[in-house]
Amino acid sequence: MGKPSFDDPVFRAHEGGKLEVRSTREIQNRDDLSIAYTPGVAEVCTAIADDPDLAPRYTWTGRLVAVVTDGTAVLGLGNIGPRAALPVMEGKAVLFKRFGGLDAIPIALDTTDEDEIVETVIRLAPSFGGINLEDISAPRCFSIEDRLREALPIPVFHDDQHGTAIVVLAALRNAARLTERKLSDLRVVVSGAGAAGVACTKIMVEAGVSDVVVADTRGVLHSGREDLNEVKRMLTGMTNADGVAGSLTEALVGADVFVGVSGGSIPDEVVATMAPDAIVFALANPNPEIHPEVAARYARVVATGRSDFPNQINNVLAFPGVFRGAFDMQATAITEEMKLAAAEAVANVVGGDLREDYVIPSVFDERVAPAVAEAVGQAARASGVARA
User: Which of 154, 184, 217 is the last residue of a domain?
Assistant: First the structure.
């Protein structure tokens, strides 16, 4: 990459950062000051000390998310470190505000040690109502999320996993409906066993997809492979019931659905071997595993992660509404039922307008976040994690 042009509109838009803090109360006289700060604030502090559940009501924790990263898996840029990751984290905070009405603060940690990350987030947690983990490399991201969910009484959500999975499932529900198939009828091949691939596989299985095959860079995951880490071994226990082995190319023969979350390139002739009315979700950015124009020659429904093609699979359709619904219910966690409810809510926004180039709503569809928030809130109550 050449030297950047700091006169470029992109750089100008980011100059000074994309966030600021503004007071919700004006301080114009002595009375304002004595209420907002000392001595009046002491009454509120004492009340919260006596009843910590008052904190979301009388502080901003009831609408504040920590966007936490270590900068090890940023977009398609990889391990670029915490400082270079900050523009992305600021952008995430902007999206929380724009689409969910929630405030968020980027926290870029100068460590990649799992124990240090977990310990730091636990110590910071009283300042926040929820934790959004972002751009932390696999497989550490799985155990970091699990440990934080176990330790903290607030929602913890790794968006690279669950945001992607929710939107993929939403699009798949509608693609199956369009092609007059049930989820249980589909044979799905997932390319990628990192954060997104694992979460997409798990949520599809939970939603009723019974035939899923997952492939990594060395081929299909199956119980006979001896090079699998703990997470990939877990996947073999819920996928590939027929014991398929071999390459991704071989697995795609006759497949109904391709979900690509890994990068790489799949030749035209391989796509041609998929089943009739195939569904292709090629989500690598900026270069999809299968170019949408190529996929459209063979598949009935095509989706990508890009904004310049129809059916964009974008996490912003999920995470603002998920956190909004969880916060509205003062949920102590984000459960699997809440994620499934979010996916169904996103899918339902499409409604009767369903067509090949519209299986997922636009990110600017103002109906999405409220629909997701309502569905997630109801699921939180049904799951027993709501406190409101």
Answer: 154
- Pairing state between β 278-282 and 299-304: parallel
- What is the pLDDT at residue 248? 94
pLDDT of residue 336: 97
Structure tokens at 220: 């299909």
Q: Domain limits at 178?
A: 160-388
Of 378, 369, 368, the residue nearest 329 (C-alpha): 378
Integer CA distances (angstroms), 258 to 91, 163, 192, 197, in order: 29, 18, 11, 12
For residue 385, the model assigns a pLDDT of 97
For position 263, what pLDDT does the model report?
Answer: 79
Q: Which strands sit side by side in the sheet containing 187-191, from one edge to the other?
A: 219-220, 211-216, 187-191, 257-260, 278-282, 299-304
Q: For the whole model, what pTM was predicted?
A: 0.94
pLDDT at position 75 is 83
Instruction: Determine the Cα–Cα distance for residues 163 and 167; give it in Å rounded to an integer.
Output: 6
Q: Are 240 and 221 in contact (CB under 8 A)?
A: yes
Sign of CA dihedral 52, 53, 58, 61: positive
pLDDT band at 377 (very low <50, low <70, confident <90, very high): very high
The predicted structure's pLDDT at residue 82: 96
Q: Is 92 a catalytic residue?
A: yes
Can you tell me the distance from the alpha carbon of 100 to that of 26, in angstroms, rounded to the nearest whole number?
25
Q: What is the mean pLDDT of residues 359-376?
A: 97
CA atoms within 13 A on the CB side of 239: 30
CATH classification at residue 91:
3.40.50.10380
Query: Strand 278-282 vs strand 219-220: parallel, antiparallel, or unpaired?
Result: unpaired
Q: Is the peptide bond before 82 cis (omega within 30 degrees of 0)?
A: no
Q: Which of 154, 176, 206 is the last residue of a domain?
A: 154
**pLDDT computed for residue 2 by the predictor:** 57
| Token pair listed for 154 | 């607030």
What pLDDT sits at residue 77? Answer: 84
- The yes-or-no answer on residue 37 being catalytic is yes
150 and 233 belong to one structural domain: no
Which residue in the list 3, 92, 182, 202 is annotated as catalytic?
Answer: 92
Q: Name, of 52-56, 164-168, 240-244, 287-291, the range with top average pLDDT.
A: 164-168
